[in-house]
Specification:
Organism: Streptomyces qinzhouensis
Structural class: mainly beta
Number of domains: 1
Strand content: over 45%
CATH superfamily: YVTN repeat-like/Quinoprotein amine dehydrogenase
Oligomer: single chain
Shape: globular
Distance between the termini: 29 Å
CATH architecture: 7 Propeller
Largest sheet: 5 strands, antiparallel
Protein name: S9 family peptidase
Number of helices: 1
Length: about 425
């Protein structure tokens, strides 16, 4: 009998993580005292496992949401990592994980530490920390072109100001001595200074980096990163987020246009931008004004949470038809973003999650300790789960299933 999907709900501010069986909403496990790094998010691993970085403890945590069902632990493995975690990514096998550090709750980038973790090392997970370059680096993990598990994996960082892609050899990183030594990249490519958003396609071996004007593409060829023609945003605005849809092998982003001032966020325009990795076709679908950021990939839909003074909603988009199929109203949040002020400082937000193997979508009501479950096929709200902490700043969600193939997107979300 196939396993039912599991929803992981984390309060990264108050601490704690809960696992719910879906669709009945039964709580199956609780992990107290954990503070997942919101920006780095959850990373899907094979077999329905998921990983995150506890920013307070300085640990990579690997969870098996089905472990307690078998009498086993929820926490499958841990390893020490440098924090504050900015991004994390894995190789397609889910064995090698890289964690970059960024701002945390600071005004300027201050850490240059990169951690690599081998989950399959003899004796248990092995972590090594090195110094690279201060910034807000994105990361992807690129296996050898022949697909062999030879260890000749690359960790590719996407740096800002000055912008660059920088490739590091996994064997060199793993062999670094103690005391966090500096490590030089093997090779790299220049990028604009405004990079924001990363993706990697294990099928083609291409990596993608979002920037102000275009999405930059590159692939590993021999001992070099080779650039390919970039992908335009196709109109006004730019995307700040890239996500690989493993169901349809499509790259997605939310393109934001309109006034540049953060205080005028209700006037921002938003479009769902897509690029077919197999077809080469690209397009945009209008979503509406306001704040739209991260998206979730379900079996037959994409989900976007839109925040606006006139009312919030969950937007459901059917990729095969290229159209919005439903707009589900969401109850307002106390402490929601206000016109005239930036929409991300000291305000409530919404997290959204889905599984590429199911039609259920989960979206939070920040500050209220609520998670709404929406049936994407019907376009209706089916259940609201409550947790005892407020889920300030929207909390953090992921929805997993051992057979959904979510790990084919090997970047944390």
């Amino acid at each position: 009998m196939p396993a039912s999907p599991r929803l992981l709900v984390a309060d990264h501010v108050a601490g704690g993580l809960r696992v719910f069986d879906l669709p009945d909403g039964r709580e199956t496990a609780f992990l107290p005292g954990r503070h997942p790094a919101e920006h780095a998010g959850f990373l899907a691993l094979p077999g329905g496992r998921t990983a995150f970085v506890d920013d307070r403890a300085g640990e990579l945590v690997v969870l098996d949401p089905y472990g307690p069902d078998r009498g086993g632990p929820l926490t499958a493995a841990t390893a020490p990592v440098a924090v504050p975690a900015e991004h994390l990514a894995a190789d397609p096998a889910g064995r090698r994980i890289a964690v970059t550090t960024g701002l945390g709750r600071n005004e300027e980038p201050w850490s240059d530490l990169l951690t690599v973790v081998d989950l399959g090392a003899d004796g248990g997970p092995r972590a090594v920390r090195v110094r690279t370059r201060t910034g807000e680096p994105g990361v992807v993990v690129v296996p050898p072109p022949d697909g062999a598990d030879s260890g000749d994996t690359w960790v590719v960082l996407r740096q800002r100001e000055p912008g660059a892609l920088a490739a590091y050899s996994w064997p060199a990183l793993a062999a670094a001595p103690p005391s966090c030594p500096p490590v030089a990249p093997l090779c790299g490519l220049p990028l604009p200074d405004d990079g924001h958003g990363d993706a990697y396609d294990p099928v083609s071996g291409r990596l993608f980096a979002a920037a102000g004007q275009v999405v930059h593409r590159a692939r590993r060829t021999g001992d070099a990163l080779v650039p390919e023609p970039p992908l335009p945003w196709g109109g006004d605005g730019r995307g700040y987020y890239l996500r690989l849809d493993p169901v349809r092998r499509t790259l997605w982003s939310t393109v934001r246009g309109g006034p540049g001032e953060p205080e005028r966020w209700p006037e921002w325009t938003n479009c769902a931008w897509w690029y077919g990795l197999g077809s080469g076709l690209t397009g945009r679908i209008p979503l509406g004004p306001g704040l739209v950021f991260r998206l979730a990939v379900a079996a037959r839909h994409l989900a976007f949470a839109r925040i606006h003074p006139d009312g919030d909603e969950l937007i459901l988009l059917r990729p095969d038809g290229g159209r919005v199929t439903a707009r589900v109203p969401l109850p307002p949040m106390d402490g929601a973003p206000r016109p005239g002020a930036a929409p991300w400082d000291g305000v409530q937000r919404r997290a959204v999650a889905a599984s590429p193997g199911h039609d259920l979508i989960a979206v939070t009501r920040g500050g209220h300790g609520e998670v709404h479950l929406v049936d994407a096929a019907a376009g209706t709200l089916v259940r609201t789960l409550t947790v005892p902490t407020p889920l300030d700043e929207g909390g953090l969600l992921t929805l997993t299933d051992p057979a959904d193939g979510a790990e084919r997107d090997p970047v944390g979300r």
